[in-house]
Amino acid sequence: MLRLLCRRKVNATVVKSVTSWNHVERFVINISQPCEDMLIGCRFGGQPFNCSELFVPLVTDEGFCCTFNMLHPKYMYISHLPLAHWNVTKSTKYQEIDWFSEKGYPKELPEDYYPSKTLGVGRSLGLSVILDVQQGKYYCSSSSSIGFKVALHSPNETPNVRETGVFIEPGKETKLRIRPEKTESELNVRNINRRYRHCLFHNEGGLKYFAHYTQRNCEMECVAEMSLNYCGCLSFFMPKIENNATVCSINEASCEEAVRLGTYDMSTSCLDDCLPACFEMNYQMEAFATRLASRACVFSDRTLAKKNSTYVANNVAVVHMYFKENSFRSQIKTEFIGVSNFLSSIGGLMSLFLGFSFLSIAECLYYGIIRPWRSVRKYQKLFDDVENVSWDPPTLRIKSKTKRNNSLRKVLQTYPRGPKPLFEKKSKALPYSLTY
Fold it and tell me: Which of 204, 260, 328, 388 is the most exposed place for a label (fewest CB within 10 A)?
């Protein structure tokens, strides 16, 4: 079984016999270094603590780990509590509470609780631990080195130690300066389709195994689903999304690796649906290390009193984790431009360039709609009236020459001294006259 976990050649009969989920989890816990042996000194917020009060066991993709300030299992999982958490007893000093980025802490908090807040910035108020690698008890490692891995993650998600963990070398004192990165969203973002806002709220995840939606938790369930579809089994650290799922043996190791690296044709992969959370907290860290002194006195003389200098140089590591600054910048997702912003922008521009007001709206309606309509109606009516008028052609009359003298005589009799004609033409007869 140990060779199976170390990915070494094993007997085929042994491989076929390893199918029980609880059997594999229990074996991983039994062969791994316990937290009480790994952590030999702890200090938090400037006060010394028993490490068992701060750290709880957890099975991850790198095997058995010890986690600090993580959610209690009853708030973390929906079903199938991992075997490593079966023995997590209720702390006598700290009361467990539920926490996630969207809502944060409850309004009413007990005096001592976890996940707890930091007491301040700097190394003195951070978390300091002394680690003992116990190199002489090593049988195999997930890497080609000896030491520890540290991974920072949100309290409501399972860490990805294999891909994001930072190496801690024995015989050195390491400082990890933490820089938080928080993403928030305004309420109006919820009205936007998730395809365009590219994030999910806490109640939109719909996970089967984890009680809280984060992108990491979603990806873990997605990889577990793909492992079931392609390999027919799950790795021992994957979430048990099906009650009848079995643990993958060494025969399915290549299939597991192919699923993890995404070498299968996964054009419709569920990973595309694992969007970031609209409210999420991520942590970045900067690591600095220096060699420990031959007689290191980190917390007290009693901590390493039984360890000689050679053992300390080869097995002991000191780690300080703390926030660099007491404030940080958060990113807020919001609409690029909403309806109210659009209307206010248009109104501001029109007021600036046109002196726009409510009367201007009436003027725009009048000159843009009413007046053109009335003009069209007026000219249409005039055109209809013109079409109804009948036009008679002019009449041409030609009078006889014989009546000319009689007419002229009558005129002279009527106006004997009338006005002098405008012109006189000496002619015997006019050819014709036109009368309209």
Answer: 388
